[in-house]
TrEMBL record:
<dbReference type="InterPro" id="IPR027417">
    <property type="entry name" value="P-loop_NTPase"/>
</dbReference>
<dbReference type="GO" id="GO:0005524">
    <property type="term" value="F:ATP binding"/>
</dbReference>
<protein>
    <recommendedName>
        <fullName>Probable ATP-binding protein YheS</fullName>
    </recommendedName>
</protein>
<dbReference type="InterPro" id="IPR003593">
    <property type="entry name" value="AAA+_ATPase"/>
</dbReference>
<dbReference type="GO" id="GO:0016887">
    <property type="term" value="F:ATP hydrolysis activity"/>
</dbReference>
<comment type="similarity">
    <text>Belongs to the ABC transporter superfamily. ABCF family. YheS subfamily.</text>
</comment>
<keyword id="KW-0677">Repeat</keyword>
<dbReference type="Pfam" id="PF00005">
    <property type="entry name" value="ABC_tran"/>
</dbReference>
<dbReference type="InterPro" id="IPR017871">
    <property type="entry name" value="ABC_transporter-like_CS"/>
</dbReference>
<keyword id="KW-0067">ATP-binding</keyword>
<feature type="domain" description="ABC transporter">
    <location>
        <begin position="313"/>
        <end position="527"/>
    </location>
</feature>
<dbReference type="Pfam" id="PF12848">
    <property type="entry name" value="ABC_tran_Xtn"/>
</dbReference>
<dbReference type="InterPro" id="IPR032781">
    <property type="entry name" value="ABC_tran_Xtn"/>
</dbReference>
<keyword id="KW-0547">Nucleotide-binding</keyword>
<feature type="region of interest" description="Disordered">
    <location>
        <begin position="523"/>
        <end position="551"/>
    </location>
</feature>
<dbReference type="InterPro" id="IPR003439">
    <property type="entry name" value="ABC_transporter-like_ATP-bd"/>
</dbReference>
<feature type="compositionally biased region" description="Basic and acidic residues">
    <location>
        <begin position="541"/>
        <end position="551"/>
    </location>
</feature>
Amino acid sequence: MIKLDQISLQRGSKFLLEKASVVFHPGQKIALIGANGSGKSSLFQLFLGKLTADEGSVAIPVQWRIAHMAQEVATSNRRALDFIIDGDHQLRGIEAAIDKAEREENHTLMASLHEKLDTIDGYNARVRAEQLMLGLGFKLDDRDKPANSFSGGWRIRLNLAQALMSPSDLLLLDEPTNHLDLDAELWLEQWLQRYQGSLLLISHDRDFIDSVCEGIVHIEHQTLNTYRGNYSAFERQRAEKLAQQQVNYEKQQRRKDEINDFVRRFRAKATKAKQAQSRLKELGRMEDIAPAHIDSPFNFSFPEPEKFSDPLLNLSHASLGYNQDPIVSHINLSIHPGSRIGLLGANGAGKSTLIKSLAKEIDLLSGEFTEGENLQLGYFSQHQLEALDLDASPMLHLQRLDAQAREQDIRNFLGGFNFHGDMAVGSIRHFSGGEKARLALAIVVWQKPNLLLLDEPTNHLDLEMCHALTMALQVFEGAVIIVSHDRHLLRNTVDQFLLIAGGKAQAYDGDLDDYSRWLISQRKQDAPASTPGSDSTGKTGKKEQRQQAAEIRKQLNPISNAIKKIEHKMEKTDKLLKDMEAELGDNDLYKANNNEKLQQLLRQQGHLKLEKNHDEERWFELTEKLESLQDELASQG
């Protein structure tokens, strides 16, 4: 196991950790969370031996192999496939030894080394590396390209593939989803679920954490606080803790009222039953965890747009692409005030191309583009971080947009994005990626848009800022179009999806779980008809199908039984709550001499409601899993 005992870690004059202790057990998958600058990445450097603790001790088993995802952009000119295989240092060592033994014609040693190569599955290394490339969105044609010929984001993906290629007992991943699209993120999620070693993960993507991790370590007030369960469980536990602080009560109530109002507005306009059900379930859960974010340093909202046109934008018979080469054709799209659209589709299908076309960054290849008279566009993409003036302050960036704005109004506005004091008026040259992303978003918000185009807005943001952005988008009065790998953001801010696939853009009636299943089916269709070692008659494939079907049937009964047990339990809980509500309706209970009994009943009611919420979530998970297995079984005939 890994043990940190009374660790103190200081950077400059600032203590990141002070006498903090924690234990990580073998095989655990833990998310390390905390505000930007709290010390998450520094803790990784401590594990890698690149930093030394100022006090305390770090104990990691000496025999453990540690793999980590490099944050530096790869500059190697090695072939992409070779660069990934380089992650397996033991394999490369054996290969070098084999080359030497061949030159020396040491046949005895060569036989021994080939046996070692077989033991570590070295003969399949190329296939494993190719699978990693495909899973992370590369094409097989990319295998022979030099690593340094890819753009920055794709080179980070190569770093991730190299880390996954490395056999490890401990895997350290720092924001692995930052440069992934939703398809690649879902693939990585499944890969990590199968990973057998210990995983420490830094991520701002709550759905990703929920799916992969079983524990949370929260860096707060220079200490390490452990929580059992995933990020959703952490929010509930922290919400319960903070809800007990009376000083936050009124702020909590205001936040709950905002969420309730949004739920009511959404319920009134929801048109797609399945998406509505998924969305309302998620929003209801957000109300319960709202207190967990009461002490967030971020608190902003989009100003109400001054004017609207209807439609705001319209594409008619449009073809989009580059150099007269269409990527998406025959698009007819009208964007109206209140439209909330999430773009789905595989990497390279044309999601960002559509966003750039709507933002008029690239011209249509053909078709008509009609812009509303009162359109006020707010466009956010990663390249806008690069367009920031590094020598200017956050305040100066906004003053350039509105020379008449009062300095105090700008300071108050920037405070909502956690730019206070010197940070608001000093140069941004030394800002982190997350701070630059916050400033770029602040610039968009300041301009009072009535149409937001957001291309991966949560990259580089921490969990609290992602939550604040989600809350702000929920009460935004204008139209929103989003490309994002952040499923939590999509579930809580859009009410319709547009699927970009096969050169077309079409309305998608399912929810994100349906989309995940659709992706899996697409991968199966795109898989090669035969693989090395398979029986040409198809007998092996049929045998495997029968075995898979039998395995699926084995899983169905336990899940069905578990669903029945939860339904029975929820019925009992509903009866208890109904009886309790009747008891709470007794006016005598509110007399002074019954205060203790009243408080006890209210506590019991709170616990039962929380328990019911947990059971409902579990019921939804199991029901979705059962349906997925039944669909998979049916697809196998």
